[in-house]
């Protein structure tokens, strides 16, 4: 992306895309999936929190710009770049968490251990034989 492509709209598109990807991974992996760990990895690797200028933009775009203080309390940094990146991580983490909360939850079938969205019908192959 060029500098002018890092807009508020592209930030929130990336936030939503991350949430959808995380939820799809959860659906594919089933009950062994640790959504919070994957969320941390996605946000930690995002260019929005790695690069100083992008991190500053996150803090401009996000309503969660003070999340770092709510999570960790007062902070001291050696330089502004580090401050922006760390604060952007917590803001983006909360933005993606909020986007995840708006997506359908993942359910796991007790009979076949398949994962599916709570708003989807699940035709369990294990349960078909029980209809006698």
Brief overview:
With 132 residues, the protein is mostly helical.
Protein architecture, described:
By secondary structure, this protein is mostly helical. It has 6 helices and 2 strands; from the N terminus they run ααααααββ. The protein has one domain. It is 57% helix and 5% strand. A two-stranded antiparallel ribbon has the order 1-2. The chain is elongated.
| Average pLDDT number | 84
Overall spatial form: elongated
- Kindly report how far apart the N and C termini lie: 58 Å
If helices are DSSP runs of H or I spanning 4 or more residues, what is the number of helices?
6
Strand order of the largest sheet: 1-2
For the biggest sheet, the summary is: 2 strands, antiparallel
Q: How many structurally independent domains? A: 1
Would you report the number of β strands?
2
Helix content: 55-70%
Share of residues in strands: under 5%
Computed over alpha carbons, the radius of gyration is 19 Å
Counting copies of identical and different chains, the oligomeric state is: single chain
Order of helices and strands: HHHHHHEE
Structural class: mainly alpha
Runs with pLDDT <50, length 5+? none
